[in-house]
Model the fold of this input.
Amino acid sequence: LNVSQQNACWHLYLCKYALFSPPQKSMRMFPTFQVKIFGMDPMADYMLLMDFLPVDDKRYRYAFHSSSWLVAGKADPATPGRVHYHPDSPAKGAQWMKQIVSFDKLKLTNNLLDDNGHIILNSMHRYQPRFHVVYVDPRKDSEKYAEENYKTFVFEETRFTAVTAYQNHRITQLKIASNPFAKGFRDCDPEDWPRNHR
Amino acid sequence: LNVSQQNACWHLYLCKYALFSPPQKSMRMFPTFQVKIFGMDPMADYMLLMDFLPVDDKRYRYAFHSSSWLVAGKADPATPGRVHYHPDSPAKGAQWMKQIVSFDKLKLTNNLLDDNGHIILNSMHRYQPRFHVVYVDPRKDSEKYAEENYKTFVFEETRFTAVTAYQNHRITQLKIASNPFAKGFRDCDPEDWPRNHR
DNA sequence: CCCTTTTCACCTAGGTGGTAAGAT
DNA sequence: ATCTTACCACCTAGGTGAAAAGGG
Done:
């Protein structure tokens, strides 16, 4: 079993990944976490899921003058460690491998009381997304094999800082340029973006 | 195994169940075919599907002055007999029985060249929707039991005439009043509709 | 002062019937 | 004359960042 992460632009982002109470009580991840999977048994069932680990025990703040993140103290109490199952789970290996798997329904929130099953994060903290593949073992005593039926993949380039508002104007512009839902804020052709924002 | 059809207003409809070429090459069924299912094995897998049979070998036309459908000759050549699988298929009996099953993704077209897998019908012809339940037999020689693993349910009240344009103003008004996507054509509160259109 | 929440206009994406033009 | 198609405004439903207001 092998997995490659498909989104090349992660390192550019300090993400507005968090937030809000009703009506907008959560946000999708953007860019979306996407993987290409190899080596599954085409006929077997698998569950695909993601979770998020704190990268460290720190809280951060953004230093505007130096355009960098600084440690601002100890982390806030950890949020509930929820898990997001890909909504197509369970599905056959053949189905998962057929095309890139996209976690575009995954939503993040900072609302500790969230009851929609969204991933809860602390703003101004750093997180490492993790991707898990669970083989659905048809044997009756499958609990015994839980360990070997479970594989975890970590792509360090997908680490990010959760925020409730963007701290860096270039990130804002990059999101506006690349997220179709933010098209209303574009002031030029997104094709030209890498050139005229260098 | 037992099934009840959940939509009470079928008999009122001569349906604009058909048509068009791109960009609008098909239409949903409205009202949606919905069923409540009883008596499945909660732990077994089932596929749910629908198809449409011609009610007779006739073509119809609408007589405006008498507000009724008249036979207008022999049926056109039959369209490809396609099938629509409920997109949640396969799923466990417990899942299907938990709530009303709604075929709201089913789409109809009159385009014989349709390559989206939509149901193809002849306009001005009458059809009988059918609902099928297929038990996914885990036995290796399951083909042998195909017959007994397959149940069909027919609700005669769901018969309709496919059209490309409504032939009756009261049908148009009823659709406008009851379909949320037609709200733009309402000229009064839909709650008042049964009263002020009697 | 720094961060969070609310509300908003503006998008994406797609399902309606009206209407006028097209086809037979 | 009758039916079909193309295009349209107008909805549903929901995802954006901006800006202003709120909170410690």
About this structure: Chains A and B do not touch (no CB pair under 8 Å). The longest helix of chain A spans residues 169-178. Helices of chain A lie at 93-98, 169-178, 193-196. The radius of gyration of chain A is 19 Å.
